[in-house]
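Recap from last week: sequence in, structure out.
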Amino acid sequence: MMYQTYIFDLYGTLIDIHTDEENPEVWARLALHFGYQGMFISGQELQRQFLLERDRQLAEAAKRCQFADFVMEEVFRAVALQLGGNPGQAWLHETVRWLRTLSMLHIALYDGVEEILRSLRAQGSKVYLLSNGQRTFIEAELTMLGILQLFDGIAISSEAGVSKPDPLFYRYLVDNYGADLSSALMIGNDPRTDIEGARISGIDSCYIHTATSPTDMAVQSTFQIWDGDLRKIPGWQQ
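Predicted structure tokens:
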């Protein structure tokens, strides 16, 4: 085999997803969730306060690394406290998942995902997930789609406090899950976060172009797949 370590991006690479967090109806419904706890706010104002607090927390986190991330529960905690609430962790988890499910328009695995992950592990490769996003809904969605147990390690930016393309996030994968980057291939659909991040970290990469890939960006990867066919990644079949 050419590679012994496979590192996958998640959204747009393994999971086909479409969400709309800009929809005012999403925030109007989420405001009802706050109202159930005696925290009265309009959907428009809830969205405004959420974005302000998110940006504040990102700015604070950016003092520690170039590409920071935030924990959505902590954003909602700050908003709730401003509204006189005293939220527990269970309610905060529920709130994050409500935002995700209310904004979800479509979610499904791309064709071949489970087959490829199982085949890689069966032939002795290590398989890792390196995803920008929130642990609270990423783990739930991996469970729902039946692939949570198919990774040797799952690194999520909200937990790490740093996101792709920062090489610190790749180092986080090494430090926490023992990934061997010297034998690694990074597979992702974003030229900046996945492919450039891998290049900076000295990792070979395979770019796969899907519907959510950014357009008009140069791709400098070891391999390129332009028809979205994940089965064309190198080394998973013997």
